[in-house]
Specification:
Number of strands: 8
Structural class: alpha/beta
Shape: globular
Order of helices and strands: HEEHEHEHEHEEHE
Helix content: 25-40%
Largest sheet: 6 strands, mixed
Distance between the termini: 48 Å
Number of helices: 6
Strand order of the largest sheet: 3-2-4-7-6-5
Length: 188
């Protein structure tokens, strides 16, 4: 194995990467869990590492409990401070009573990105089969910031980032990417 950048190892699915410089995106990572701390937060660490490996900026990283108010407070703080262009959460998207990430964030969405859930489940099905039904992965835009909500497992974080999100946040990805939309997200 070489020390080549991840973009040289992974082919872009259903698209291609153009030659040229990457426009770095500032991404905040929020782990939603009642049981994780900085040391045991493997999914947050995987996501943060992959963000940096892809040439993006891990602008912030935090952990909050499975609590609607705590989730909203942290995401709103990053957005209102202008700290991130994108927020990715990991955890709290399941079906149990404590899984409240979609309930916390979907009401804040100015626009939903319905296709994200569809594509995430297609990718996840290839890895975990019908168990993908237990995820309520979702995405949207809050005040001009993209927000992606991933399940908390290491595999789901890898699938979500490696096969979906990273490509849409790569300014070189064609035929299109979300980076080129960022300057226009707050248009009226």
């Amino acid at each position: 194995m070489t020390d080549a950048p991840v973009t040289d190892i992974l082919p872009a699915p259903a698209g291609k990467l153009l030659d040229g410089p990457l426009t770095p995106v500032r991404i905040a990572v929020l782990t939603v869990s009642d049981t994780r701390d900085e040391e045991s937060d493997t999914s947050g660490r995987i996501l943060a590492d992959r963000i940096v490996e892809a040439g993006q900026v891990c602008a912030a990283r935090g952990i909050v409990p499975d609590d609607i108010g705590a989730i909203r407070t942290q995401v709103r703080a990053w957005i209102s401070a202008g700290a991130a262009d994108v927020v990715i959460t990991t955890g709290g998207t399941g079906l149990t009573g404590r899984d409240v990430t979609p309930e916390a964030l979907e009401p804040l969405f100015d626009k939903r990105i319905d296709g994200f859930s569809v594509i995430f489940h297609q990718v996840s099905y290839q890895t975990v089969g019908l168990s993908t039904l237990q995820s309520r992965a979702t995405a949207g835009i809050i005040d001009g910031v993209f927000v992606f909500c991933l399940p908390g497992s290491n595999g789901a974080v890898r699938d979500g980032w490696d096969k979906v999100i990273r490509w849409q946040l790569d300014s070189r990805h064609r035929p299109c990417n979300m980076v080129e939309l960022m300057p226009r997200l707050l248009e009226r």
